[in-house]
């Protein structure tokens, strides 16, 4: 499954469901505007076991078109949020390199004009 959006947030910031409420509002607005549901990766559940967490987050990051980071002091203090953000950047750099390689290097070379 692919996602339109990956929500990256500090769990402390969602204790009063403010992030959850924001995501639900965003989904409703998108549905009204685009006429289709917004596919969002939003992990609200407590994660048990580091390996399962990493696998689930990495899969969500790789399958998402865009990352929305809900920035706050707690977000910047979280090593997990930093890891998530960095993994997203790595994924995007990989996509950009693949795009550049396939579009730039697959064209036939031409000789420069010499006068």
UniProtKB/TrEMBL annotation:
A biological process (GO) of this protein is: signal transduction
Q: Which residues form the TIR domain?
A: 1-115
The organism of origin for this protein: Oceanidesulfovibrio marinus
Chain ranges passing through the membrane:
none
Query: What is the name listed in the Swiss-Prot or TrEMBL entry for this protein?
Result: TIR domain-containing protein
**Which InterPro entries does the record cross-reference, listed alphabetically?**
TIR_dom, Toll_tir_struct_dom_sf
**A Pfam family per the record:** TIR_2
